[in-house]
Amino acid sequence: MPGLDLEEIAIVSYVLDDAGRRSALDPQDMVGLVVRTPEFLREGWELGLHLGSPPPPPRHLLVLGMGGSGIGGDLLRGLLYDRVGFPVTVVKDYSLPAWVGPQDVVFACSYSGNTEETLSAYEAAGRAGARRVAVTSGGQLADRARAEGVPWVRIPPGLPPRAALGYLLGPMLGALHRWGWTEGLEEEVGEAVAVLRELSARWGPEVPTADNPAKQLARALVGRLPVVYATSRLSEAAALRWKTQLNENSKVYATWNVFPELNHNETVGWALAGQPEGLLEVVVLRDPEDPPRLVRRLEITREVALGAAGLHEVWAHGHGRLSRVLSLVLFGDLVSVYLAYLNEVDPTPVAAIDELKRRLES
Ligand code: F6R
Fold this sequence. Notes:
Elements: H1 6-17, H2 19-25, H3 30-35, H4 37-49, E1 61-64, H5 71-80, E2 88-91, E3 105-110, H6 116-127, E4 131-136, H7 139-148, E5 152-154, H8 165-178, H9 185-203, H10 213-221, E6 225-230, H11 233-248, E7 255-258, H12 266-273, E8 280-286, H13 292-306, E9 310-315, H14 321-342, H15 351-361
Parallel strand pairs: 1-2, 1-3, 3-4, 4-5, 6-7, 6-8, 8-9
Helix pairs in contact: 4-8, 4-9, 5-8, 5-11, 9-14, 10-14, 11-14, 12-13
The structure holds fructose -6-phosphate.
């Protein structure tokens, strides 16, 4: 393990490589849920294939959802960015844009079915006459969809919403395929499931730190502020996912941004941000398909801005877009859980979110 002395290697290995120690820190087995991502994706895809008769292609497609239930929409937007003839808008709020109308299709995604912003936007979509589909494990969203005859996908209950990513993204992909709105998704999902299975085995908890790049990166992030950069519209959602998983699983502050936009503002901020050496640790999510112009931007950004900050590149795997973006997501999900272990926190509870929801209800 580069950069570590023998004592540190012993501590890291004790925390990350000892199964008993891991399960003491992770009693609800978040890591086990992360490595099941490919199975959840396959099951979610199949649920979407059973959605009823196809609506005509929409003027706009909207995805409503907050936090762990909204990220599926961000991923979908990136996947479809340059391949469908309708815009995809992700709504993470109570209200909808004024232009929403009867020619639009809305996926309302809430794992619990009880998230007030999503419920409010779902009602607004109904008032606007949009065609709605709900994706949920139950709660008020399921009750309302049932009562109003709105088609809904029932996903299995009992998971932390952010661990149910495959169940939240999969049904939308399955529906788009069944409705004939986009080509090639069946092959992409098949490839993604196979690639993610293989990567889960390579980066999973049983693989010792010395051979496990996800554990090694988690070690490098201890005590640092992670800055996650994406290089494209496709991987933008993966960078956001990294940030939110670092927040919720590892309980740390983190930031994210995307090229080329960050070259027009954030790059200047590094003039002072890079000064306290050892504070920031940059993770760049790389894609073998990054165009040469982007690669050049990255090289220049390193030289003119990033200075002494630690810098790590994480590469996408697979051929199709879905494999590429989800391989980046999987790596980040595992890093966030391993960092939780190194921070000696249980990755599953999100006490501040629970408390906030409780206080808003009362
Ligand atoms: C919890 C999590 C949160 C929730 C969010 C919305 O694991 O990731 O970000 O996803 O508070 O709740 P749901 O998903 O139930 O609509």
